[in-house]
Predict the structure of YEATS domain-containing protein.
Amino acid sequence: MESDVEFLSEIPASIQKTRMVVMGRTIDDREDKNGRKTVKDVEVSVPIVCGSIAFFRGKNVKDYRTHKWTVYVRGATNEDLGVVIKKVIFQLHPSFQNPTRVVDSPPFTLSECGWGEFKIDITVFFHTDVCEKKLELSHMLKLNPENDYGAIPLSTKIPVVAEFYNEIVLPDPFESFLARVHNHPAVHISKLTDGFNMLPPGVTETYYEMKKGDTKDHPLSQWFLKFSEAEERLNISAARQKVSAAL
């Protein structure tokens, strides 16, 4: 079943921004109805960031389109998530024309203009050999800059960035998926059984010769927040211990 880490109100805000989502299978079988075999006792983790970047367009803008903003689902260190994610649906405020927007190729981003802050519902669909379930997320679009002391003046040069780290955990992956993402920078694999052949027929080692960050350059990447995957996992571990202690 699908689960995530439940956070208590006394957990620090820095930890609350980190979430682990375990995408369990609907049927716990060694092989599915299509003959695809799973690899037991192995977990594939996919660190992702859900966020938005908003630019103030200036005081001379006469209409309601005061800000240009972009909402997105990206790799934690800007990897191409197309190897795992098939498409992403962004549900905008009903005041937008065609508020249900589908992005079916990476980068999974959507840009618009407007004046108000609102919650954006985000649905992530995976490739068929990754997970049959969809992942439901939500993101609060932030347009107005603020700090610990309150609101600060708007700037046309420095955007408002709101991002949150999520780690998707896929237990008992299909062999085909595991072979396809082996050494891909967007995923982490917990451990492998001895003798498992990573490379499917016809695929060469050069396909997997990728380094961290070897992805499509995003025009907004200079504004992306920096996440340490090791630090975020410590946050998740701390949250789990906090929850366990309270049970």
